[in-house]
């Protein structure tokens, strides 16, 4: 039987540092929400949330909906939820508007695998709101039986979204809203292995690699757009609840995959939403973060030279 290996159970735990050990409400005038002396130091507030406009892919449920709720709680002007199910979209918008006020949320039907649709949503937001301040590339699936679509959703859409963000959120754009932040929802599996879901794992490795490249100073200096990565541990979302044998490439792999998921302890999406808020506010350009078991970690990925073991001089 195989199992997912979360960061805390691997040698990689030495590269993550706890930054939030206690969640609590915080006024926007406070320099930091940390309460423990051993937390990672937050040197700078990069963004406050009042009057901001956000685009969240996969925003109608789970982590995306939790992030939208947190943004509106902190005074964001508008949360635009992108998805493919109008029924779920309407329900999510109704829930958010009932909690935060009329027209605070909006649903747009969009397939993240279609670059044209993705760009049309950006153009709509430029026309309607002056641009986008926050992009959360959150959409993702686990379905190795349709791994080509899985790779499109988990990897290509992250690349498409980030590149469109550079185009429509960069400092050279004519939009009113400039130099925003892009958060890419990654997965702790991209720092480990998940043998019974190899294509899913590969898509997340690819998303992590692309994010690390696109977060580099090389791009930040040109665009002024911050890009940060958020690696999520097992979370109580439809993405996890819908795991079944038929979503694996092979039936035997599917049995192992389901068994592995059944043994995982999942965190509440609301905690991931709070982690999202922290990295939007404090995340330095190019930084990586891990949220697992209700804790947020600053993730420092080692250089390959540090884990190579020399065998011989050739």
UniProtKB/TrEMBL annotation:
Name of this protein: 15-hydroxyprostaglandin dehydrogenase
Pfam families (UniProt xref): adh_short (PF00106)
Family: Belongs to the short-chain dehydrogenases/reductases (SDR) family.
GO CC, one annotated term: cytoplasm
Source species, domain of life: Eukaryota
InterPro entries per record: NAD(P)-bd_dom_sf, SDR_fam
UniProtKB keywords: Oxidoreductase
Oxidoreductase is among the record's keywords: yes
